[in-house]
Amino acid sequence: MTRLEVKGILGERVVTGYEMTDPKRGQFRPLTIENPYKTGIFIKDEKRYDVDYYVVGIKVPDDKISDDEVVPLVFFQDKLVGQGWQFLNTKIKVP
Q1: How far apart (Å, rounded) are the C-alpha atoms in residues 53 and 33?
Q2: DSSP label at 55?
Q3: How far, in Å, CA of 69 to CA of 41, rounded?
Q4: pLDDT tens per residue across span 51-68
Q5: Are 70 and 51 in contact, with CB atoms under 8 Å apart?
Q6: Mapped to the 3 state alphabet, what secondary structure does 59-79 carry?
Q7: Spacing of C-alpha 46 from chain mean position
Q8: Which of these, 44, 35, 42, lies nearest to 15 by C-alpha position?
Q9: Contact status, residue 92 vs residue 76, Cβ threshold 8 Å
């Protein structure tokens, strides 16, 4: 899959909760985070890997996004080649 195809499936936003906008009417608005939440670049063996970090769920509602709340998706030449922290840490970040 390409980065654009992945983004099409996972979406550009993830709902992390709701905020009450009108207590009398019981109306809420969704609280969202842009996806990918962050991106990165790694160079290994003169090859460039782009990494998109997607929010997969909020474990602690502390206004911070921690590593266990995102999943890295690794792309090489715009194609998805792997996903997850184990893949990133053992296949891409290894010196």
Answers
A1: 12
A2: E
A3: 20
A4: 999 998 888 878 889 999
A5: no
A6: CCCCCCCCHHHEEEEEEECCE
A7: 25
A8: 35
A9: no
Spatial distance between the Cα atoms of 18 and 32, rounded to a whole number of angstroms: 9
Structure tokens at 52: 């998109």
Residue found by looking up tokens 């550009």 in the block? 12
Looking at the whole model, is its pTM more than 0.85? yes
| 15-53 pLDDT, tens digit each | 988 999 999 999 999 999 999 999 999 999 999 999 999
Q: Which tokens hold the place of 56? A: 């997969």
Name which of 64, 66, 70, 65 is nearest 84 in CA terms.
Answer: 70
Is residue 32 packed enough to be buried (19+ CB in 10 Å), middle (13-18) or exposed (0-12)? middle
Count the neighbouring beta carbons within 10 Å of the beta carbon of residue 66. Answer: 10
Q: Which of 62, 70, 64 is nearest to 40 (CA)?
A: 70
Question: What is residue 54's DSSP assignment?
Answer: E
Cα(76)–Cα(36) distance, integer angstroms: 16
